Amino acid sequence: MNRRKKRWLWLGVVWGLALVVTGWNMTRISHIQKRRQELKILQMDHRYLEKNATDMDAVRDWRKRLTHRVESFDLGFLVVENDLKRLSERFNLSNMRIKAQKDFQDTRPVSIQVHVDGAMPALVEWLTTVEAGYPYLSVSKMEMKNEHRQHRAKMSATITYHYALSSTTQKGPI
């Protein structure tokens, strides 16, 4: 081989190596830029979480209150029934009857039928207190009949009871 061919061969090898190293550098730079973008996004997420931690905790606490955690439906229903009856006594309501949907087959939520008599303002206050104090109870249907002669009213309501079964060994949301 003559000298000129050897020089061209070396020149080709050097340029080939330069192109390979350049390509390798480009992929490394691209990889580093991608990782920097991911890091920037994670830092923004972290700042957002730090800034809004108290609000998110409040929402999480409120969400927990929307479901009544009980050992069994019967026990939870007994608690709800006693609370509603105690409230009715506080507002001087009478003839309270509470009945749960019988064919629920462990599905949640369950409809509860409530029938009660009393003065119209007392019924409205009772209903407002139930909605404010028991977020796991929501009124889905209601009917009030005012009896003018007796200055009393009769209310029939369908209340949806949101519950979740829990046990002492179970941790976290269901």
Instruction: Name the structural class.
Output: alpha+beta
Mean pLDDT: 88
User: What separation lies between the terminal Cα atoms?
Assistant: 80 Å
| Rounded Rg | 35 Å
Q: Which range best describes the helical content: under 10%, 10-25%, 25-40%, 40-55%, 55-70% or over 70%? A: 40-55%
Secondary-structure topology with pairs:
Blueprint: H1 3-51, H2 53-65, E1 68-70, H3 73-90, E2 94-100, E3 110-118, H4 120-133, E4 137-147, E5 152-161, E6 163-165
Parallel strand pairs: 1-6
Antiparallel strand pairs: 2-3, 3-5, 4-5
Describe the overall structure.
This protein is α+β, with helices and mostly antiparallel strands. The chain is built from four helices and six strands, in the order ααβαββαβββ. It has helices at about 5-50, 55-65, 75-90, 120-135; strands at about 70, 95-100, 110-120, 135-145, 150-160, 165. The strands form two sheets. It has a four-stranded antiparallel beta sheet, covered by helices on one side. Strand 4 and strand 5 (about 150-160) form a beta hairpin. The model is unreliable at about 170-174 (pLDDT under 50).
Overview features:
single chain; 174 residues; alpha+beta; four-stranded antiparallel β-sheet; two-stranded parallel sheet; 4 helices; 25% strand; disordered C terminus
Question: Would you summarize the structure shown here?
Answer:
By secondary structure, the protein is an alpha+beta fold. 54% of the residues lie in helices and 25% in strands.
